[in-house]
Amino acid sequence: MSDHHHKETFVTKYIFSQDHKMISKQYLITGIVMGVIGVFMSMLFRLQLAYPGKSFSIIEAFLGKGGEGGVITPDMYMSLVTIHGTIMVFFVLTAGLSGTFSNLLIPLQIGARDMASGFLNMISYWLFFLSSVIMVASLFIETGPASAGWTIYPPLSALPQAMSGSGLGMTMWLISMAIFIASSLMGSLNYIVTVLNLRTLGMKMTRLPLTIWAFLVTAIIGVVSFPVLLSAALLLIFDRSFGTSFYLSDIFISGEVLHYKGGSPILFEHLFWFLGHPEVYIVILPALGITSEIIATNSRKPIFGYRAMIMSIIAIAFLSTIVWGHHMFVTGMNPFLGSVFTFTTLLIAIPSAVKGFNYITTLWRGNLQLNPAMLFSIGLVSTFITGGLTGLILGDSALDINVHDTMFVVAHFHLVMGVSAIFGMFAGVYHWFPKLYGKMMNKDLGYLHFWLTAISAYGVFFPMHFIGLAGLPRRYYNNTAFPIFDDLLHINKVITIFAIIGGLAQLIFLANFFFSIAKGKKTSKNPWRANTLEWTAPVEHMHGNWPGEIPEVHRWAYDYSKTDEEGNLWGGQDFTPQTIPIRTGEEEF
Amino acid sequence: MKALFFVLIFVVIAVACWQIVKLLGLTKVENQTATEKENNINGWLMLGLMGFIYCLMIYSMYGGKEVLLPQLSASEEGKHIDVLFKLTMTLILIVQFTLQFLIYFFTFKYRGTKGRKAYFFADSNKLEAIWTITPALILAGLIIYGLWTWNNVMDASDAKNPLIVELYAKQFQWQARYAGKDNELGYANVRFIKGTNTMGVDFTDKNAADDIPLVVGEGKFVKELHLPKGRKVIFKLRSQDVLHSAFMPHFRAQMNCVPGMVTQMAFTPTVTTAEMRMNEDTKAKFEAINELRKKKGEEPVEFDYLLLCNKICGSSHYNMQLKIVVDEEADFNKWLASQKTFAQNLNN
Question: A402, A526, A588: best mutation site toward chain B, by most B Cβ within 10 Å?
Answer without folding.
Answer: A402
